[in-house]
């Protein structure tokens, strides 16, 4: 079973990466449309992969494998993040967040970002505008960047207590 699951997970990651890197953004009206498509695809794929797994640590390992493997948008600022509904970070490309509860995290404007993302995800998903550090291509730690306005989009991962999101940064 684990071998089959690993094959399915790797196949999903490869297909999602191809989907995100083959210029599909050119057919979308905007980066925000691209983000919505990517998040919906990732949420559906993860839901299908995780539905038969009861071990939480195995679920988290699969989610991490997918999130760490995928970057998208022309400037590579597109990435996924996953939280539980209690605002505990499951995975983020900035690994300093992994496993931390960010319920009290405020952006540069004082918004409780993760709380709001969680509430929107609980209602089925949608956009939240907030400020976040924009990664520089190749900078996995998001270090040294100022917070920029971000249009975040989240969706629940059906069958789990998690939600997945991504976003598009305001053009500078």
Number of strands: 5
Query: What portion of the residues fall into strands of 2 or more residues?
Result: 15-25%
Query: Per the principal axes of the C-alpha atoms, what is the gross shape?
Result: globular
**CATH architecture grouping:** 2-Layer Sandwich
Please give the domain count: 1
Q: Estimate the mean pLDDT confidence.
A: 83
The CATH homologous superfamily is called PAS domain
Give start-end ranges of low-pLDDT stretches: 22-28
| CATH fold description | Beta-Lactamase
User: Ends: how far apart?
Assistant: 48 Å
Integer-rounded radius of gyration: 15 Å
Query: Major β-sheet, in short?
Result: 5 strands, antiparallel
Order of helices and strands: HHHEEHEEE
The neighbouring-strand order within the major sheet is 2-1-5-4-3
Instruction: Output the CATH class name.
Output: Alpha Beta
Helix content: 25-40%
What structural class results from the helix and strand content? alpha+beta
Number of helices: 4
